């Protein structure tokens, strides 16, 4: 069994939104599947939900590239919003980012 782990976040690192999380790897590859976790908007660039979503998606692009893949190969995504009233604005940024041929 081969597991690759990349981009380790340490609890002492500058945590997004001031939250100190346990040690995690933002990218884990197992049996050809890439898992991305722990991606949040950067606190110094917080804006509206569209800006935050765009920031997170840009980070995901970088992490996927490091793992040798791209958003064209997405299998699943989990999105956490603080207010479902923000969903429409979030979805605008998501729809602008997602691969239209592999949505």
Helices and strands in order:
Layout: E1 3-9, E2 24-30, E3 33-36, H1 49-66, H2 87-97
Antiparallel strand pairs: 1-2, 2-3
Descriptive overview:
There is one protein chain. The chain has 103 residues and is α+β, with helices and mostly antiparallel strands. 28% of the residues lie in helices and 17% in strands. It contains two helices and three strands, in the order E-E-E-H-H. A three-stranded antiparallel beta sheet has the order 1-2-3, covered by helices on one side. A hairpin with a 2-residue loop joins strand 2 and strand 3. Helix 1 runs parallel beside helix 2. It is globular. The chain starts with a strand and ends in a 6-residue tail after the last helix. The model has no long low-confidence stretch (mean pLDDT 84).
What is the overall number of helices? 2
Bin the helical content.
25-40%
List segments where confidence is low: pLDDT < 50 over at least 5 consecutive residues.
Answer: none
- From the helix content, strand content and strand pairing, which structural class follows? alpha+beta
The secondary-structure element order is EEEHH
Mean pLDDT: 84
Overall geometric form: globular
| Portion in strands | 15-25%
Largest sheet: 3 strands, antiparallel
Distance between the termini: 30 Å
Instruction: Give me the count of strands.
Output: 3
């Amino acid at each position: 069994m081969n597991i690759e782990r990349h981009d380790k976040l340490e609890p002492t690192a500058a945590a997004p939104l001031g939250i100190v999380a346990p040690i995690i790897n933002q990218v884990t590859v197992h049996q050809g599947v890439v898992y991305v976790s722990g991606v949040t908007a950067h606190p110094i660039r917080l804006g509206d939900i569209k800006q935050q979503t765009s920031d997170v998606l840009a980070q995901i692009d970088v992490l996927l590239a490091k793992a040798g893949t791209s958003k064209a190969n997405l299998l699943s995504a989990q999105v956490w919003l603080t207010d479902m009233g923000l969903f429409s604005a979030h979805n605008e940024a998501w729809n602008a980012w997602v691969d239209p041929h592999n949505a």
